Amino acid sequence: MSLWQWLAVAGAVVILVLAVVAGILQYKVHQLNRARKAQQQELEEANQAQRERINKSIQVIAQAVGSDDITLTEASIRISVLLDSLGVEDPVREEFSAFYELKTATDHIPILQAWKELSTKQKFKYDRERTTQEQFHEKAVVDAAKRIRGRQF
After folding, report:
1. Is residue 88 part of a domain?
2. Stretch 90-100: mean pLDDT, rounded?
3. Is residue 134 a part of any domain in this protein?
4. Which of 23, 34, 108, 150 is 20 to 30 A away from residue 15, measured at CA?
5. Which H, E and C letters describe the chain, residue by residue?
6. Residue 67, pLDDT score
7. Structurally, how many domains does the chain consist of?
8. pLDDT per position as a tens digit, 23-78
9. Given pLDDT bands bounded at 50, 70 and 90, which one contains residue 80?
10. Please, are residues 76 and 141 in contact by the beta-carbon 8 Å criterion?
11. Long-range contacts of 76-81 (CB under 8 A, 24+ apart)
């Protein structure tokens, strides 16, 4: 066999090896793309499930507005936080601004552990403030609660 034939055979072997390596790498890329798509699908499904849970929470709270189950302040705080967690657009925030307004008007009132640490006199003072704000915003908050019922965001 001549030198040129050996070089041709060696070249063919090198090309074959490179083709096999390229095929293996292409298969691995294909597998990674499939795994990435599956992971993306799972994330989208989890995100949709979370959105549905948040929307359901909004509906439950909106239904409770006007009953003795929840104060207007608590409903406003919860609904506004849930709407924000959904990333609603400004027109939605404006449409349901009553929740945000009452929340802002009562933001200074301590909650949770800070509330527990207040004296009875301080609690009474904040309760009066909260009640006053709720009376001022009641019509708008109740109306917003009625309008938000059945809506999905």
Report:
1. yes
2. 97
3. yes
4. 34
5. CCHHHHHHHHHHHHHHHHHHHHHHHHHHHHHHHHHHHHHHHHHHHHHHHHHHHHHHHHHHHHHHCCCCCCCHHHHHHHHHHHHHHCCCCHHHHHHCHHHHHHHHHCCCCCCHHHHHCCCHHHHHHHHHHHHHHHHHHHHHHHHHHHHHCCCCC
6. 87
7. 1
8. 999 999 999 999 999 999 999 999 999 999 999 999 999 999 988 899 999 999 99
9. very high
10. yes
11. 76/100, 76/101, 76/102, 76/103, 76/106, 76/137, 76/141, 77/103, 77/106, 79/145, 79/148
The predicted model gives 95-101 an average pLDDT of: 97
Q: Which two tokens stand for residue 96?
A: 């349901």
User: At residue 22, what are phi and psi to the nearest 5 degrees?
Assistant: -60, -40
Q: What is the extent of the structural domain holding 135?
A: 3-148
* Residue 153 in domain: no
Q: Is residue 35 part of a domain?
A: yes
Tracing tokens 């929307």 back to the chain, one arrives at: 55
> At 1, is the pLDDT very low, low, confident or very high (cuts 50, 70, 90)?
confident
